[in-house]
Amino acid sequence: MANKIKYLIIGNSVGGIGAAEAIRELDKKGTMAIISDEPYPAYSRPLISEHLFEGRPLERMLYRPADFYETNNIQTLFGERVAKIDFRGHSLKLKSGKKLEWQKLLLATGGSPIVPKMEGGDAKDVFTFTKLDDAKAIDQFLKKRKGAVKALVIGGGLIGVSATEALVRRGVKVAIVEMKEWILNTILDEEGAELEAKALVEADVEIITGHTVAKINKNSSGAVAGAVLDNRGKIACDLVVVAIGVSPRLELADGLKTNRGITVNRRMQTSMPDVYACGDVAEAYDFVYDENRVTPVWPNAYVGGRVAGQNMAGSEAEYQGGTAMNSLKYFGVNIVSAGMVSPPDKGYDVVIKRGDGIYKKVILKDGLVRGLVFAGDIEKSGIIYNLMKDKVKVDGFKEELVADDFGLATLPEELWRARLAVPPSEESFIVPPVEPPEEVVVDE
Hints:
Layout: E1 5-10, H1 14-26, E2 32-36, H2 48-54, H3 68-71, E3 74-78, E4 82-86, E5 91-94, E6 99-107, E7 111-113, E8 126-127, H4 132-144, E9 150-154, H5 158-169, E10 173-178, H6 190-202, E11 206-209, E12 213-218, E13 224-229, E14 234-235, E15 239-242, E16 246-248, E17 262-263, E18 275-277, E19 282-286, E20 291-293, H7 298-312, E21 325-330, E22 333-339, E23 349-355, E24 358-365, E25 368-375, H8 381-389, H9 413-420
Parallel strand pairs: 1-2, 1-6, 2-3, 6-18, 8-15, 9-10, 9-15, 10-11, 17-19
Antiparallel strand pairs: 4-5, 5-6, 7-16, 12-13, 13-14, 19-20, 21-22, 22-25, 23-24, 24-25
Helix pairs in contact: 1-7, 2-4, 2-5
């Protein structure tokens, strides 16, 4: 047992880092190691688009100091892949042949880009866009290419729109093909998405919805030479970015209970003793739907990682739940969405305000906020999100939730006093700015 790594974490993104920090707060000396198939210290994946369009260096993408691992006495095995895990034997093998034994294990392996099978999909210059090396590869292509470049982005979700903005800022003409009826359909309803689509079209992006790519043409050297849609329409392109979404990386989960992701309880424990999971690979509690769901956004991954780390270190912590949550600004349009973006049936109330490039929508049921979409004006979205998270009854003021002058002062006195910790005797107060949720990129 003494030779076993006390805490072994597979995955070096925000969930793994959250776990490592929580462990070190409780156990300063227990041996810890992090395995990652990428060769880099923890960096912000949403910033890969900035690496592509402005050359942002790795040093400005890190979200922990360069000496984080040394300071926290964490052994790093970067650029290593896990071949197989023996959960019952508390050991694993790396593809390099090395064997590791552990006492507590965390799977924070994230998701893998979905690449559908299509004719010509093996052509040169077909890229994904989920890791720094993807952005580097596209950057190298653009630097070598002479003359005007046309790109096809397959998928109109967050990853696809992020890649599109970076390419447009590099002077590339882009066409997006989205199989569903509108872009950003996992985080926006049709009306909210229309505001973003308008901004893309104004940036000379072609948007094709309701279709898929049937074939990528190749020239004599095997490079991309255009594409063909399912309706036989043709698209001229020199490079293709596949951005359909990601799926939880379950290849190491053989022997664990899984559904869409690895099933975990409120302590982030899997079906195997001493094995935990968090982040995009885990199916954890969603407080809006009151069930376990895959909700792959950064704040959920970090909080879930911290809960896992606390429990791995012997504490008693419970995940209070997360939900889908996105804050973004592509092509100049501010958007925040969270929870449900469209009611699943007629048993929900919906309040909407629209006009002058602004769209505000709040979904309610039984007096509770169940979801929101804010576009154009997102200033008060943080207040709405917290009302949803705290399960505050809003029956008495639901129409005010989308009003121009809505704020904490609009809430019943007992609510704003509790949120501001204002003693009942005080007659005046200053409302602090409430920020929308942290900008995150959802994996569709």
